[in-house]
Amino acid sequence: MSPTHTPRIAVVGSLNMDLVLQVQHAPGPGETVLADALHLVPGGKGGNQAVACARQGAEVALFGRVGDDGYGHTLRAGLDADAIDHSGVQTDIEATTGVAAITVEASGQNRIVVVPGANGRFVLDAAALGAALQGAGSLVLQFETPLPQVLAAAEMAHAAGCPVVLNPSPIQPLPDAMWPLVHTLVVNEVEAAALAGQSVATPADAAQAAQALCAKGPTQVVVTLGAAGAVAADAAGNRYHPGLVVQAVDTTAAGDTFLGALAVALARGEPLDAAVREGIRASALCVTQPGAQPSIPTRAAVAHSPQPPAWSPL
Fold first, then answer.
1. What structural domains does the chain harbor?
2. Which residues are catalytic?
3. 3: exposed, middle or buried (C-beta count within 10 Å: 0-12, 13-18, 19+)?
4. Comparing C-alpha atoms, which of 30, 93, 294, 60 is closest to residue 165?
5. Of 44, 48, 94, 244, which residue is least crowded by CB atoms under 10 Å?
6. Where are the alpha helices (DSSP H) in 166-311?
7. Is residue 105 within 8 Å of residue 24, measured between CB atoms?
8. pLDDT digits (tens, 9 = 90+) for 100-133
9. Which residues, including other chains, have CB under 8 Å from residue 168's CB and lie 6 or more apart?
10. Whole-model pTM?
11. How far apart are CA 66 and CA 72, in angstroms?
């Protein structure tokens, strides 16, 4: 595929309204702090990853579930603004739209508590997803919707010959049946450590964990390391990709932005290492702006951003 190819990507995942509290520091046990500001921002890992894919130039179809309430209507309007097909987003008349309470410290570090709401009642529409998978460059999945539905979606994509890009967050054990269905597994250091059963504190640790995860079935694994960059692993070995030095304002959606840029690059036919570099560039831009979806950069912005340092084998 050429760099100008417009890939089609399907996303199954959560949609939340983020209640973002800007604080100097997060409260400790029994501590009360005053927030500097409160912002309501569209979020949810599914919504964020769909927006990230769309802003990198993909045609995106999103499957999820929201409540029949103001937050749900606002989230749909936001998807419209990014030309995302949300005909597969269900409306739940009995549950409220998911909400995430997020504290963002002055350093940019965040802490997140999610109330799943309608996300927890998502039921896969097999016919609609099946149509979206025809000719799609990838199916993007995470774990903020019920795991049986995620597994069913992965099985459908695998049967259709559509590569599955999985971000198993919030972390939970993968069913044995899911491992061989995953083409590209994207995990942060905490998720990698939990799934591989070993500590991940350095790029070398990440490489060992990534190879252990590859052995479970995925074709390729990427372990993100925050500001330190990422490690890519596949049958050719391990490569360490250093990060870019930026002034972080808010790290919310950085991982989702990385995944979206990576997924679109892969769907365009770019090799894994080039896709990882795109993810690093996009996420570095993301953390310099506040909020989840508002901070996700466009393809044009990424194209004009600095290139990360050269990668090295591990």
1. 8-15+44-96+124-313 (3.40.1190.20)
2. 256
3. exposed
4. 60
5. 94
6. 189-196, 203-214, 254-267, 272-286, 299-303
7. yes
8. 998 989 888 889 898 999 999 999 999 999 999 9
9. 142, 143, 174, 185, 187, 191, 195
10. 0.94
11. 5
